[in-house]
Amino acid sequence: QKTAYEIPLRLVGSEMCIRDSFSFMSGVTLKNLNKTYSPGSTDAFHAVKGIDLEIRDKEFMVLVGPSGCGKSTTLRMIAGLEEASSGDLSIGDRVVNDVLPKNRGVAMVFQNYALYPHMTVADNMAFGLKLRKTPKAEIQQRVEEAADTLGLTSMLNRKPKALSGGQRQRVALGRAIVRKPDVFLFDEPLSNLDAKMRVQMRAEISKLHARLNATMIYVTHDQTEAMTMGDRICVMKDGEIMQVDEPINIYQSPANMFTAGFIGLPQMNFLHGSVQEADGGYYFVSQATGADRIELTARLGEIARAHLGKPLVLGVRPEHFSACEADDPQAIHAKVEVGEPLGAESFIHLSAANGDKLVVRLVGIVQSNIGQSLSVKPNLDEVHLFDAESELRLEAPRVVA
Prior knowledge:
Largest sheet: 6 strands, mixed
């Protein structure tokens, strides 16, 4: 019975396998995906905890989180290098739980370039195709096309030892490109590069995504890479998904304190206290001392009204502070711990009178001395309120018509 597209037979090494020659969708879907190491033993570790994630066709999805959050394990399960303990994993319209890695239509770029030192650039890029018995003429065409895309044409006869770190990483990318996979997988590919080269390679990979128009899944612990490269970001912690959204939405509307603190450099400041009603308004009051009472805007007051007296957290990003006079009614009084003038901006680390630690970003070169008194106030149009217990961001109640 004929299907919607051809399913040819071809030889891969000494095995015969079935591989889709054309897939009209190359999205990736994870349904209740779990990974447990040493299940049933006292050393059992639940690395990925029933996550659901839909990665759209031709999307650049970034999995980001601290070490041990499960992002690389998730990527390796998609690649087939790790077996899922339970749940379903689909690439396009195929459930691939039991499909061998070589037949999943994916290509993976690792943190380690994994190049053969005795082979030339061309041979390294062509090696996987040779194992699949691809015709020589087709191998040469694919290698030349990939080399042209990556700016490696003049280096095809060099060996890895004659290349810089960035060039080696491009060869690893080329080895993935020549396979023409449905999905590209990147496991922290820029971690071994210096800061300048990381910036250049971020741009190269983003351009590559635009040229190839392919589905890409990128794992990193660097939130700057996540913000600058991803169409969407999946933030993970302890094997669970904290939030999935476009970068700017995650930055401006974090779902919880973890996401708010992880995305953004320096991280968001968290002021602990509670909200009280007085003089016809709502005020955020420090939990530690009751000092530095901050009058909330109408928007924040509407959010806080249902949480009066409960432990709350006021989240303020460093750029949403400004210096003010000590007698300003919204002032937070603090002392300078460290000053970091960077030229276009300055980061000032503060210790507030109520015990909170703050980092503020001020425009230009701001000279500050350790122990110097400084008063700052938050831009209340940009701050967030979080529930101290659940750590979820509080939102204004919905109006039912």
